[in-house]
Amino acid sequence: MQIWVDADACPGVIKEILFRAAERVGVSLILVANRPLRTPPSRYIRTVQVSAGFDVADNRIARHVEAGDLVVTADIPLAADVIERGGHALNPRGELYTRDTIRERLTMRNFMDELRSSGIDTGGPSSFSQSDRQAFANQLDRFLARNGSGR
């Protein structure tokens, strides 16, 4: 199992949690972004820089994810693709997507896109909070306990 991170939009505090988890359990952590990233020195952590462009990082992750891998992303279509390939998808706010919840999220995302394209202001997500950070850390710990580690 590997952990992939859609790193361009991933909050720094979530990356820090992931860095510590990779070291603690010995799992491979791969951050994919279209810009250089700073990571702590580790045999478990690596970065992949892709070219700039719409969905380039997402497409790279989708092409390389394997069944059982975990992908950390807020991107609903990427999460759906990962689940379809037998992987797991975890939102930076701590929601572990399932086949059922990802269908609901895709439907809502498409509906909101339609509203925005018709000129309706739908707002955006709430600010990232301490409770979001805690929810993510708890869900990641549960996932790693259930699915083993890299060691």
Task: Explain how this protein is built.
The chain has 151 residues and is α/β, with parallel strands linked by helices. Helices cover 46% and strands 16% of the residues. Strands 3-2-1-4-5-6 form a 6-stranded mixed β-sheet, with helices on both faces. The longest helix has 19 residues, at 99-117. The protein is globular and about 50 Å long.
Give the DSSP E fraction (strand runs of 2 or more residues). Answer: 15-25%
For the residues shown, what is the average pLDDT? 88
How many helix segments? 5
Order of helices and strands: EHEEHEHEEHH
How many beta-strand segments? 6
Mass-distribution shape: globular
Q: Within the largest sheet, what's the order of strands?
A: 3-2-1-4-5-6
The rounded distance between the terminal residues' Cα atoms is 10 Å
Largest sheet properties: 6 strands, mixed
Helix amount = 40-55%
Contiguous uncertain segments of 5+ residues: none
Rg for CA atoms: 15 Å
Q: What structural class do you assign from the helix and strand content?
A: alpha/beta
In a nutshell, what does this entry contain?
With 151 residues, the chain is of the alpha/beta class. 46% of the residues lie in helices and 16% in strands.
Strands, helices and their partners?
Layout (H helix, E strand, L loop, with lengths): L1 E5 L5 H14 L2 E6 L11 E5 L6 H9 L5 E3 L3 H9 L3 E3 L5 E2 L1 H19 L12 H18 L4
Helix pairs in contact: 1-5, 3-4
Name its key features:
151 residues, alpha/beta, 6-stranded mixed sheet, 5 helices, 6 strands
